[in-house]
Design a protein that fits this description.
Number of domains: 2
CATH class of the largest domain: Mainly Beta
Largest sheet: 12 strands, antiparallel, barrel
Shape: elongated
CATH architecture of the largest domain: Beta Barrel
CATH superfamily of the largest domain: Phospholipase A1
Strand order of the largest sheet: 12-13-14-15-16-17-18-19-20-21-22-23
Distance between the termini: 29 Å
């Protein structure tokens, strides 16, 4: 492989970062595009929206009822909708999934409310201009006993000060609620500092779900719904040398399956993933570094009693398929790493990545981030970011070089 011209990388990277930050601030048509949704019926223009309750909780499922004439094909299994934030500045796309038995002139739908949408927001159906509904967000608290003393079974229960319970019916557990096909994968940030030399470190990362659940392949081969392609790029930019070169860049494409083993509307969660990953610094000759691995990863999150703060554990193990460019890399990187996370998605967050090689050495990376403001998109341009690194392998080229503690400060676009 050959690495692109560094000026092209620098220009493209900063244009991408500036564009992402601008989208977070710009009061214009914006938001994430949903996966392809079947077109609504011609009767959609006459549909209306209603809701059992006027409050929803960020990141949780909610129910709406669509009333009107369903059309010749009946009610669609999915609808494209959007949440319009206050001030008519930004719109966020989401999907609604049909649930329960349809009525002659109504159908219940469930969706997952965006965690970034707070306050009073307007929900609109994409194909029905008249189908508008104002909803207010309310914080989600842990499940508790119902007023008659019984426990809520297959039910997400929340209570806000002075308000009634918000209850998601049991059949919501059978609804298929999916995120958009294109999403963030690992943290996205740029931080400055370090020593010998002073440098900037930045990372870009995304993933793409290859098959839609409602597509022909997804329906006939359900296992393919969990197949993802991901790409992560991490670069070290030397700010002290005269030409400001990139010391090293790591490119990590991967192909993997991901399963949500436990993903309740409220409470602890467990996701499992496994697949193939290639990592290379894109150089040739003596500076060439690359590895190919099979990996397995788990992501377990346990929520504390407040329902918003959680502790996450993310172990990752790998087996080297090819390491001819760096045959002794396991001595410094080992065969696995432990990821840790504690905090709130909307507040202070502490993460760590710990590695230990077979030679008894390794590395530790600790990231601490905090919102700069109450953000619309919680992962885009919203966090001040402090990063600490100590040990071996700050870059792939330096996999067997030890670095003294390095501190860098910058911003996170995704954490």
């Amino acid at each position: 492989m050959t690495i692109p011209n560094k000026n092209h990388i620098l220009r493209g990277t900063f244009l991408a970062l500036l564009a992402a930050a601008a989208r977070a601030e710009d009061c214009a048509e914006a938001g994430f595009k949903p996966a392809l949704v079947p077109a609504a019926s011609a009767h959609a223009a006459d549909w209306l929206l209603a809701a059992p309750v006027s409050k929803v909780s960020p990141g949780q499922t909610f129910e709406v009822v669509v009333t009107g004439e369903p059309g010749e094909a009946g009610w669609p299994s999915r609808l494209s909708a959007r949440v319009e934030l206050p001030g008519n500045c930004l719109r966020m796309a989401l999907e609604l999934t049909a649930i329960g038995e349809p009525g002659p002139s109504r159908q219940r739908y469930f969706g997952r409310w965006p965690i970034e949408a707070v306050g009073v927001n307007e929900l609109t159906l994409a194909d029905a201009a008249n189908a508008r509904l104002l909803l207010r967000t309310a914080p989600m608290l842990p499940a508790r006993a119902l007023p008659d003393g019984s426990q809520a079974e297959n039910t997400a229960v929340a209570q806000t000060a002075g308000d009634a319970n918000l209850i998601a019916p049991a059949d919501a557990a059978n609804a298929v609620i999916e995120s958009t096909a294109l999403n963030f994968h690992e943290p996205i940030y740029i931080v400055f500092g370090g020593e010998h030399p002073r440098s900037a470190r930045y990372q870009l990362s995304f993933r793409y779900r290859l098959f839609d659940a409602q597509g022909m392949v997804g329906k006939n081969l359900p296992v393919t719904k969990g197949l993802y392609f991901a790409f992560t790029q991490t670069s070290m930019w030397d700010l002290e040398s005269e030409s400001k070169p990139f010391r090293d860049t790591s490119f990590r494409p991967s192909l993997f399956f991901q399963w949500k083993a436990v993903d309740p509307p409220l409470g602890d969660s467990l996701a499992l993933a496994g697949g193939y990953e290639h990592e290379s610094n894109g150089r040739d000759g003596p500076d060439s570094r690359s590895i190919d691995t099979w990996f397995a990863r788990a992501d377990l999150r346990h929520y504390l009693p407040d329902g918003r703060t959680y502790v996450g554990i993310e172990p990752k193990l790998w087996h080297y398929m090819d390491r001819s460019d760096n045959p002794d890399i396991a001595r410094y990187r080992g065969y696995g790493q432990l990821g840790l996370r504690i905090g709130r998605d909307s507040a202070l967050m502490l993460t760590a990545i710990l590695r230990r090689g077979t030679a008894g050495v390794g590395s530790a990376q600790i990231d601490l981030s905090y919102p700069l403001r109450e953000s619309i998109f919680s992962g885009v341009g919203a966090f001040v970011h402090l990063q600490y690194f100590n040990g071996y392998g700050q870059t792939l080229l330096e996999y067997k070089e030890s670095r003294h503690p390095q501190f860098r400060l910058g911003v996170s676009l995704v954490r």
